[in-house]
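This protein record is not my work; I was only asked to verify it. Take the sequence as given and treat only the tokens as open to question. I have pasted the whole thing underneath without changing anything:
***
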Amino acid sequence: MQARIDRLEVKLSFAEDLLDELNSTVFRQQQQIEALQKHLQALTEQVRASGGGGGGAPPGDLRDEIPPHW
């Protein structure tokens, strides 16, 4: 009976370590997501401020130019 309890305690210890590691991973990923969201918001505001938020390419856009090999 004692050997069974010991095995269960070892398994519980590994499970607790894994849970702590997973919690740390989720926390880091959430920080990265928040940083990326802020970056995306800043880029969105920058595009709006430059007037590039309309439908189609703005005048003088590189997409309107003929490629050099033509």
User: Anything to note?
Assistant: The radius of gyration is 27 Å. The CA atoms of residues 57 and 64 lie 8 Å apart. The chain is about 70% helix and 0% strand.
